[in-house]
Amino acid sequence: MEKYNIDILCISETRISGSGSIVITAPETLHQFHFFYSGIEDNSGLHGVGFIMNQRTRNALLEWEPVSCRLARIRLKGNPANVSIVSTYAPTRDATETTKDDFYGELQQLSSSIAARDYLIVAGDFNARVGPSDQTTRQILEKF
């Protein structure tokens, strides 16, 4: 993160049970990073989302909300407005319709709960499939 001047990462497939935070120390620089995670409650090791942030970003943290094993939210102090970031891990297209509907409903509800004056960033893995190997887009892309 330091090498590329990255302050915060949204990560998915953490495969960590429960929710919480830990401090990670980079061995080569001894800089500390804060890892906030939201995972499934059982020990299946499925899914999981989170954020990794440097100390400067951690100092701006106003709120941390582990929503589910597929959604988490943080709110950062900003100027001129605060910033809410949602980390996502969407179900694949092979998931049941109920699972997909539940995820997108939960994402919609979470997005609606963000303060209107905040900037909103939604980032993560939406399990999108594009390109010539995807049956859905193949007919369109083959023409190009």
Q: What's the CATH topology name? A: Deoxyribonuclease I, Chain A
Strand order of the largest sheet: 1-4-3-2
Radius of gyration: 17 Å
CATH homology superfamily: Endonuclease/exonuclease/phosphatase
Helix-strand pattern, N to C? EEEEHEEEHEH
Question: Ends: how far apart?
Answer: 37 Å
Count of individual domains: 1
Please tell me the overall pLDDT: 89
CATH class designation: Alpha Beta
Sheet bearing the most strands, described? 4 strands, antiparallel
Name the CATH architecture.
Answer: 4-Layer Sandwich
Strand segment count: 8
Strand content: 35-45%
Q: In terms of per-residue confidence, which ranges show pLDDT below 50 for 5 or more consecutive residues? A: none
Protein name: Endonuclease/exonuclease/phosphatase domain-containing protein
Organism: Artemia franciscana
InterPro entries: Endo/exonu/phosph_ase_sf
Please characterize this protein's 3D structure.
The protein is α+β, with helices and mostly antiparallel strands. The protein has one domain: Deoxyribonuclease I, Chain A. The protein contains 3 helices and 8 strands. A 4-stranded antiparallel sheet has the order 1-4-3-2. The protein has a 4-stranded mixed sheet with strand order 5-6-7-8. This is Endonuclease/exonuclease/phosphatase domain-containing protein.
Any chance you could write out the topology, listing elements then pairs?
Blueprint: E1 8-12, E2 19-25, E3 32-38, E4 49-54, H1 55-59, E5 61-66, E6 71-76, E7 83-89, H2 97-112, E8 119-125, H3 135-141
Parallel strand pairs: 7-8
Antiparallel strand pairs: 1-4, 2-3, 3-4, 5-6, 6-7
